[in-house]
Amino acid sequence: MNQLVQFEAQPSVILEDDDIAKVDYDSEAEADGFANTSRVELFDTKELKVQRLEETSNEYGIVRRSLVGGRRDLGKKVKVVGIHKKKYDWSEMDEARLAVFRVFAAAVASRNGGDANIKYGWYGGSRDEIKEIMMYGFRRFEHRGLQYGRGVHLSAANNPMESVKTSVPDSDGLMHVLLCRVILGRPELVNFGSQRDQPSSMKFDSGVNDISSPTKYVIWEHHMNTHILPVYIISFRIDSLTGMPSIRLPTSPRMGINGLMGRLTNYLSSSKMVVIKKLQHEYHKNKISRPGFIRNLRAIAGDDVLRAIVKGL
């Protein structure tokens, strides 16, 4: 059965079963997935034009389950603190953003047999980046998203962990991801390590890492504020990234931590590199352990990037 969520002044949003990872853990795990907070204010709702969802609402439950899905281990480690929904009817500028998205959705649909191929996609970043996107939209960052070409990279709705790993913890240890509506239109395959910044021809609208079962979406920079519509901010804590495959970082002089930092700048945004370099400084000062440094590095850089660097040695 489809999961239906109504939005004021915008079309109804449907989360298909395939878009939400199946939930099969017990009620105890469900309860563990909620952070014990006293409604701590996470964002300035007036500034961002967002509304905090009530934890008892059906909409909150649907969005939360779309993050933790059916993984019992993840459901117990991810502590959702709050969910905010963008209210596009609270300002004229946001109404215009929604109108632009609708116009492009209709245009893409008209040239693709009536189907704009709109999906949900996750985007992880720092708290400041998430705030900026909600207020002004996406912008081009130095070194942004080179893993699959130059553009905005989102993970598929049923693959939220990829965006969780690219989220940057804030000063309170909270992480934040966006759940967005994405116009894919007719996608084409984009290989890992691609340096492209546009589609190979006008007949394609977006990129994916796998045509039959994509887990990553690439929206080219010239479409990043017409083909992506941020809908929710999900704020959460995560105990650890245990349960994911381990990665052995090189320890030889050929590629020490400093060498790794140099290569990471080719893949990550400047905002993420600032956080990583701060962690590196704390590691060298023995303020955090090597396992702790690696755990945080994986959360920020993502395993795909680290594997690519290690394999390239």
UniProtKB/TrEMBL annotation:
It comes from the Eukaryota. It holds the Pfam family RST. GO terms for cellular component: nucleus. One of its GO terms (molecular function) is NAD+ poly-ADP-ribosyltransferase activity. It is found in: Nucleus. Coiled coil: none annotated. Residues 36-258 form the PARP catalytic domain. Residues 248-313 form the RST domain. Keywords: Developmental protein, Nucleus, Stress response. InterPro entries: Poly(ADP-ribose)pol_cat_dom (IPR012317), RCD1/SRO1-5 (IPR044964), RST (IPR022003). PANTHER family: INACTIVE POLY [ADP-RIBOSE] POLYMERASE SRO2-RELATED (PTHR32263:SF14), INACTIVE POLY [ADP-RIBOSE] POLYMERASE SRO4-RELATED (PTHR32263). This is Poly(ADP-ribose) polymerase, catalytic domain, RST domain of plant. The lineage of its organism: Eukaryota, Viridiplantae, Streptophyta, Embryophyta, Tracheophyta.
